[in-house]
Specification:
By secondary structure, this protein is mainly alpha-helical. The chain is built from 15 helices and four strands. The strands form two sheets. It has a two-stranded antiparallel sheet with strand order 1-2. A two-stranded parallel ribbon has the order 3-4. It is globular. The relative contact order is 0.11.
C-alpha cells in the first residue's frame, strides 16, 4: 500500500551475524538481557542506535531487524538512507485512494482464549505430520521463513528434541503451551504496532457474536467509511473526536469509533496480565490428548528416522524400589 520500505531485505550473512549477536542476550531474557542487546545494536551508531533505544521492551523482532539492516548496509551508502521514513511507489503516489483498516477484537481476553483454541485445532488437524512432511521433503530449510514461523518453529523444536521417549506427556504439553504463548504474544505485538500507526482505521470486531454476524457488522463499518469523501475519511482516521459538533450530554468531545476502539484495546492490556490459558480439546488425559500424543510419537519417530521410541521407565523401577 505505502510502497517499498526505506530499508532493503537483509543478506543471509547479516541475518546470521545478527542472530549470533543477540543469541546470548535472548537466553537471559528479562530486563538485563534486553538492555544488553539494545546496547549491542546501539554500537552501530547513528540512526541504528536511535532506533534500537526507541524499540519497546521485549520486541526482539524489531531489534534483530535493526541489527540485520545495520550489518547489511555496513560500509555502504545505503546506511545513510536507512530508516528515513521515506517510501517509494506507494498506491497514493500512483493516484489511488488507499484506505487501511485494522480488524480489532473488542475483548482481548476472549480473543486470547480463541487463539488458544485455534492452536489446539492446528495440533489436532495435522500440524505435526505437515511439519514432518515439509522437513523430509526439503521444503523447510533451517534458515528459511517456514522454519522460523510461529507454529512450525515450536513443532520443529518438539519433533527434534533429544532423547525422545514414547508417551512423554509433559514434553507434548510444553510444546502445546509454547505454541499458544508464542501466538498470543505475536497477536499482542500486532496490536501494539497498529495502535501506533495512525494510517489505519480501527474497526471493532465482536468476539461474542456468531462468525457471520461479526463479519457482517465489520463489513458494514468498512463499507460506510469507504463511501466517505476523502476529507471526511481523513478526519475519522486522524482525529480523536467524532463528526463536527459531536458531543456527549455534557458537551465533551466524542471519540471517533476508530479512536474509541484503539483506546479500549490499549486499556484492556491490564486485563491480559491476569489471563490464564486453559486447554479445552487437548486437556491432559482426555481422549483427544491421548490420540494426539500417539500421533506426536509417530511423527517424532519419522522425523528422527528412528525404528521406534523407547518407553520411559518409572523412577521407582529405575532405582530398584
Amino acid at each position: 500500500v505505502r510502497g517499498k520500505p526505506d530499508v532493503s531485505v537483509p543478506t543471509a550473512a547479516a541475518v546470521g551475524r545478527a542472530e549470533a549477536l543477540l543469541a546470548g542476550c535472548k537466553e537471559r531474557d528479562g530486563p538485563e538481557g534486553w538492555h544488553e542487546a539494545v546496547a549491542a545494536v546501539a554500537k552501530f551508531g547513528g540512526v541504528f542506535a536511535a532506533r534500537a533505544k526507541g524499540i519497546e521492551f521485549g520486541d526482539w523482532y524489531r531489534l534483530q531487524r535493526t541489527a540485520e539492516t545495520a550489518l547489511s548496509t555496513e560500509g555502504t551508502a545505503a546506511a545513510a538512507t536507512a530508516y528515513t521514513g521515506q517510501r517509494t511507489g506507494g498506491l497514493e503516489a500512483l493516484g489511488y485512494d488507499a484506505r487501511c483498516f485494522f480488524l480489532c477484537p473488542d475483548d482481548r481476553v476472549a480473543h486470547a482464549a480463541a487463539i488458544d483454541g485455534r492452536c489446539e485445532q492446528m495440533v489436532t488437524h495435522g500440524l505435526l505430520p505437515e511439519t514432518v512432511a515439509l522437513k523430509r521433503d526439503g521444503k523447510m530449510p533451517p534458515d528459511g521463513v517456514l522454519a522460523k514461523a510461529i507454529g512450525y518453529r515450536q513443532a520443529l523444536d518438539y519433533l527434534q528434541r533429544p532423547a525422545p521417549v514414547a508417551g512423554h506427556a509433559s514434553s507434548f504439553e510444553e510444546f502445546i503451551s509454547t505454541h499458544m504463548s508464542a501466538t498470543r504474544r505475536y497477536s499482542q505485538q500486532q496490536m501494539k504496532w497498529f495502535r501506533k500507526d495512525r494510517q489505519f482505521v480501527f474497526v471493532p470486531v465482536s468476539t461474542a457474536a456468531a462468525p457471520a454476524a461479526r463479519t457482517a457488522a465489520a463489513a458494514d463499518i468498512i463499507a460506510n467509511i469507504v463511501r466517505m469523501e476523502r476529507g471526511e475519511y481523513e478526519a475519522e482516521l486522524l482525529s480523536a473526536v467524532g463528526p463536527a459538533g459531536a458531543a456527549d450530554g455534557g458537551g465533551a468531545p466524542v471519540p471517533t469509533l476508530s479512536e474509541e476502539t484503539r483506546r479500549r484495546n490499549e486499556q484492556q492490556g491490564k486485563d491480559m496480565k491476569r489471563f490464564m490459558s486453559v486447554r479445552t480439546a487437548l486437556s491432559a488425559g482426555s481422549g483427544e490428548f491421548v490420540a494426539a500424543l500417539a500421533e506426536a510419537d509417530a511423527c517424532t519417530t519419522r522425523m528422527q528416522g528412528l525404528p521406534g521410541l523407547p518407553v520411559a521407565v518409572p523412577a521407582e523401577v529405575e532405582g530398584g524400589r
